Amino acid sequence: MDHLSKARRVIQMEIDELENLLNRIDESFSHAINTLKTTIDSGHKFVIIGVGKCHNIGHKIAATLNSTGAPAVVLNSQNALHGDLGIVSNGDTLLALSYSGETNEILDLLPALRRFKITIISMTGNVSSSLARNSDIILDTKVEREACPLNLAPTSSTTAMLVLGDAIAMTLLESRGFVKEDFAKLHPGGSLGRTLLTKVSDIMRIGENFCTASPETTLKSTLKKMITARSGAAVIISDAGGLEGILTQGDFVRSIQKNPDILDLPVSKFMTKNPITIEENRLAVEAVQVIGENRIDDLVVLDEKGKPTGLVDSQDLSRMKLV
User: Between β-strands 233-237 and 243-248, what pairing exists: parallel, antiparallel or unpaired?
Assistant: First the structure.
């Protein structure tokens, strides 16, 4: 059998076991979800324990839970016997992972864990095991055979645990009404976080970098301000603070090509009136969309009263990883 055939055999074996898991899942799962939701709603957390490969699976389940707003920690069973039980609190829920259900390191912990007022959920392939008998809720992850040719290395069994862990996290997510905005708050460094959390006010140019001029300012003086601010445009603002227009580099080039002797004339003669604008409380991604759709380089930002407060410069967007 060639390498590809062997790989396909392994994948198919694991798919078959997942189909068995799909057909076997029962109301115990619903009971577990209700318990876990109560745990979160009451301000408590999930404590996950496992040994060997199950410990690794526990880390993945905890990471998924944490990333979806469900606090979870992984407890090292050996260290727990020497002080780390302090991480467990009354009201927490324990998720114990053991395919055999007879892992000594976990069984040795159960009496100590029972002293806390916690619910114990086991994920095991042996529903008659010692772990199962000491659990409040049992999630059956039995497989007929590991994908290992020797039927020894945890493969199908760990995949079943991993997938069931994902099912728990995603079902819990939906039952709690967790939405993508909540997800973004927990992932501020990712692209989704930037997309859903960054406002126009976070990316607009302000202060010395926000180039403004009055309508009476000469074109020459306005250009000097643009150079100083390293801005591709100047927002023209009236004495009352209202938006009069915008002067872009394109406006300047087109005007001076028509008449080279214009530098001492008021900028109001060359500005673009009624420029495209956006409110400062809108999402930054909306500003990117407006700039792209209108093929402009500079977007004037207005406050809730319609007064200009900043400028979104397209040359800043790539630096901010918004395009």
Answer: antiparallel
Query: Does the reported pTM lie above 0.90?
Result: no
The whole-number pLDDT of residue 279 equals 96
Contacts of 251 (CB under 8 A, 6+ apart): 270, 271, 272
Q: How far apart are CA 165 and CA 167, in angstroms?
A: 5
pLDDT along the chain (323 residues), means of 10: 92 97 97 96 96 97 95 93 91 97 95 93 98 97 96 95 98 91 79 80 94 96 94 95 95 89 92 96 91 94 96 87 70
CA dist 122 and 99 (Å) reads: 9
Smallest CA-to-CA distance from 47 within 62, 31, 33 is with 62
Q: Note the maximum CA span of the chain.
A: 94
The sign of the dihedral angle between the CA atoms of 63, 64, 65, 68 is positive
- In 3-state terms, what secondary structure has residue 48? strand
Q: Which pLDDT score is estimated for 285?
A: 87
Q: Is the CB of residue 148 less than 8 Å from the CB of residue 44?
A: no
Which amino acid is present at 100?
A: S
- Cα(216)–Cα(234) distance, rounded to whole angstroms? 13
Q: How far is CA 283 from CA 180, 302, 315, in A?
A: 14, 13, 18
Sign of CA dihedral 34, 39, 43, 45: negative
β-pairing verdict for 277-279 and 308-313 = unpaired
Residue 72, number of CB atoms within 10 A of its CB: 25
Burial label, 12 (beta-carbon count in 10 A; 0-12, 13-18, 19+): exposed
Q: Are the C-beta atoms of 159 and 141 separated by less than 8 Å?
A: no
Angstrom distance (rounded) from CA 225 to CA 11: 64
Q: Delineate the domains of the chain, giving CATH numbers in brackets.
A: 3-178 (3.40.50.10490), 197-317 (3.10.580.10)
Q: Is 47 exposed, middle or buried (0-12, 13-18, 19+ CB in 10 A)?
A: buried
